[in-house]
Known about the structure:
The chain is α/β, with parallel strands linked by helices and 223 residues long. Helices cover 48% and strands 12% of the residues. A hairpin with a 7-residue loop joins strand 1 (30-33) and strand 2.
Amino acid sequence: MIAKGMHGHTRIHPQGLLRQFYLWLRGTEQILVRPAAELPLVLISYAKGDREGMERLRETLEGTWLTLPETFRHRYAEVLSQVPPFVVVLLRRRNLCTCLGHHHPPGSESRLTRRLRSMSGVLTGEIDLAYEAIRDWEPQPLSYPALHSAAEAAEFQSFQWQLGLLTVFLHELHHLVAPAESERHVRGQSQKFYEDALAHFVAERFGVESGLRHGLPVPKVIL
Ligand SMILES: [Zn+2]
Ligand SMILES: [Zn+2]
């Protein structure tokens, strides 16, 4: 516990850690997310005006992840077992280099992450995600002929955005824990995760299989 108005040094007890962070971060554009147990504790750091992106990422980590079948989530079990218990996500709209995200190898993290790590004594990793670029991203053209209404198309797009955020999040964590792994391998795993999860969502929600799964000719979803 930290007494109100107390000054000077305060010993950090593990159970008081989150409160310490909240006090330190109060008034800044950062938020702590506590997703499912197999995911790390996440601090999203975002610019003023980017609240929508933060909310989307938070929903994704807290909710969307758990809506996926266990068999899909299990594909990242090995990666997640090696991820630091605390991960900072620097959330941006876009990257100048046009990448959807990056992992930040040890030594290249922001001052925020270095400070959190030294404050908490907890292993802390860092990645960045470009949420608008992810929203606009389609790894392959898709066809979902069963989306008949604008409402269905909007629901599909919403899920697609959240799944994209989740996929790039997992992709960058994969790089973080396996720096020697090739981009081809890391991307292969994340792309398959994305395609399978999207196909599952569409099949379950709209009762159709995705064009990807069947290799159908695939025009874009028209809104
Ligand atoms: Zn880049
Ligand atoms: Zn990559």
